[in-house]
Amino acid sequence: MAGCTAVAGSTKIGAHCMIAGAASIIGHLQIADNVHISTNTVVMRSIPHAGHYTGVFPFDDNANWEKNAATLRQLYKLRERVKALEQTIKNDG
Q1: Count of beta carbons in the 10 Å neighbourhood of residue 43
Q2: Alpha-carbon distance 25 to 37, whole Å?
Q3: Which class for 9: exposed (0-12), middle (13-18), buried (19 or more C-beta within 10 A)?
Q4: Which residues, listed in sequence order, are joined to residue 36 by a DSSP beta bridge?
Q5: 31 CB burial (10 A radius; 0-12, 13-18, 19+)
Q6: How would DSSP label each residue in 1-59?
Q7: Looking at residue 69, what is its pLDDT?
Q8: List of residues 6+ apart from 57 with CB closer than 8 A
C-alpha cells in the first residue's frame, strides 16, 4: 500500500494486493486476493475478483456525476450498438 492511500470503514483487503498512491477505498468493502488498484482510483464497491482496477472520474456536481457514472458503465455496449446500426445502414443504403 503506497503513501497517501485512504482506507475507510472496516474494509477487508485480500492477500497479494497492490494499492497505488492516493487511491481511496470508501466504505465497508471486501477486496479479493491479487487485486491491483491504480493510483488515484476511488473504490466505492467491493472487488470480488482478482485483476487490475482503475477508476478516476471527473469532478462534477453530485446529480450530474451520478447520471454520468451510471451511463459510463453502459458506454461500451452503446458503442457496439451504434457500430452495428451504422453497418446496417451502410449495407442497406
Answers
A1: 21
A2: 10
A3: exposed
A4: 18, 52
A5: buried
A6: --TT-EE-TT-EE-TT-EE-TT-EE-SS-EE-SSEEE-TT-EE-S-B-S-EEE------
A7: 85
A8: 42, 65, 68, 69, 72
Q: Architecture of domain 1-56 in CATH?
A: 3 Solenoid (2.160)
Q: Report d(CA 19, CA 7) in Å as an integer.
A: 10
> Along the 93 residues of the chain, how does pLDDT read in single tens digits?
999 999 998 999 999 999 999 999 999 999 999 999 999 999 999 999 999 999 877 678 889 988 988 898 899 999 999 999 999 999 997
Task: Kindly tell me the burial class for residue 19, based on how many C-beta atoms sit within 10 Å of its own C-beta (0-12, 13-18, 19 or more).
Answer: buried
The confidence score (pLDDT) of residue 33 equals 99
| CA 84 distance to own-chain centroid | 26
Length of the chain: 93
Return the domain boundaries, the chain. 1-56, 60-93
